[in-house]
Design a protein that fits this description.
It is elongated, with a radius of gyration of 20 Å. About 35% of the residues lie in helices and about 20% in strands. The chain has a seven-stranded mixed β-sheet, with helices on both faces. The chain has a six-stranded parallel β-sheet with strand order 2-1-3-4-5-11, with helices on both faces. The chain has helices at about 15-20, 45-60, 85-95, 135-145, 160-175, 190-200, 215, 220-225, 240, 255-270, 290-295, 305-310, and strands at about 35-40, 65-70, 80-85, 100-105, 125-130, 150-155, 180-185, 205-210, 235, 245-250, 280, 285-290, 310. It has about 300 residues and is an alpha/beta fold. The protein folds into two domains: about 15-130 and about 255-280, Response regulator (Rossmann fold); about 135-250 and about 285-310, Rossmann fold, CATH 3.40.50.2300.
């Protein structure tokens, strides 16, 4: 089965109507399923979630019965389920159909994004997994590595509600620690370098990046400005570290996608209904550290962090 990853979202009104022009959500006449996959942008975190989703269905013995539509187009055939990767993708699909079960992943807060009635009792045709990273612990990590830090900068896309939620949470917690937060927003990747220069000019001690799709797709643009200023970037997930951040208490997007795939298996086999499935969270996070970046920025990790860090 030839699966295409990293499919950009191209959701015109006509395409959405074509995609969702379906009737029953049962299996096709030959006992097979049709699953549509909508991925917002191409970057490693979302690609990993996509792969994890498919692998979970393979393990459940369903993949050979499923036709995955991962094309950058939408067809009018009947879908049994839709996977929406990232908040804007899920919002677009939820607006297009109230009939087909939709599972989301790489979404921070479904209730705040108006995708469900509540995270515990979704009530409609949307459920899935949340990629909320441990924001308070990220702040604690920064202060453990940089105990003299007084100001933390943050950069995120103004159009991503998931990023806004994380930053508001971070600001509230930082205030309890007496830490000032300087925030800048971007509209697209072309804004990142200028936004980074603004943070440098405000003399921030470190930068925190939430699990933001725009920034994640261009981490190199950010660290091209912060590295020469010796300002470390702390990310919300390990692909930020692979892209140039110094460390993260990381969400595992492959495991998150896999978790979503297990939910999909229950829906497809009739074991559960999407409206009854609470939003599932990732409970364990790992400390991922960029070894070369530590050396480049002249940072020495405390021994307790060094002992539990995964170096990449």
């Amino acid at each position: 089965m030839n699966l295409k990853k990293g499919i950009a979202l191209a959701l015109t009104a006509a395409a959405l109507l074509a995609f969702t022009g379906c009737g029953s959500n049962g299996t096709t006449s030959n006992g097979e399923y049709k699953v549509g996959v909508v991925q917002l942008v191409e970057h490693p975190a979302l690609d990993a979630a996509n792969k994890g989703f498919v692998d979970a269905l393979k393990e459940k013995g369903l993949a050979e019965k499923i036709t995955f539509d991962q094309q950058n187009r939408f067809v009018s055939d009947r879908k049994n389920l839709i996977l929406a990767i990232a908040t804007p993708a899920a919002q677009s699909m939820a607006n297009a159909t109230h009939d087909i079960p939709i599972l989301g992943t790489a979404i921070t807060d479904y209730e705040a994004a108006k995708l469900v009635k509540s995270n515990q009792k979704p009530g409609g045709n949307v459920s899935g997994t949340s990629d909320m990273n441990p924001v308070e612990q990220q702040v604690d990590l920064i202060l453990q590595v940089m105990p003299n830090a007084k100001t933390i900068g943050t950069i995120y896309s103004s159009s991503e509600v998931n990023s806004q939620i994380q930053v508001e949470k971070m600001k509230a917690y930082a205030a309890t620690k007496g830490i000032k937060v300087e925030e800048v927003t971007v509209s697209n990747v072309n804004d990142i370098q200028q936004a980074a220069q603004n943070l440098v000019s405000q003399r921030v001690d470190a930068v925190y990046v939430p699990t933001d799709n725009v920034v994640a797709s261009a981490m190199s643009n950010l660290v091209a400005i912060t590295d020469p200023a010796k300002i470390p970037v702390f990310g919300g997930e390990d692909n930020h570290v692979k892209g140039g951040a110094v460390m993260s208490l990381s969400v595992d997007y492959y495991k998150l996608g896999y978790q979503t795939g297990l939910m999909a298996a229950k829906i497809l086999t009739g074991e559960a209904k999407v409206e009854d499935m609470p939003i599932e969270m990732q409970k364990e996070f790992k400390l991922v550290v960029g070894k070369d970046k530590l050396e480049k920025l002249g940072i020495t990790l405390p021994e307790d962090l060094m002992n539990k860090a995964t170096m990449i």
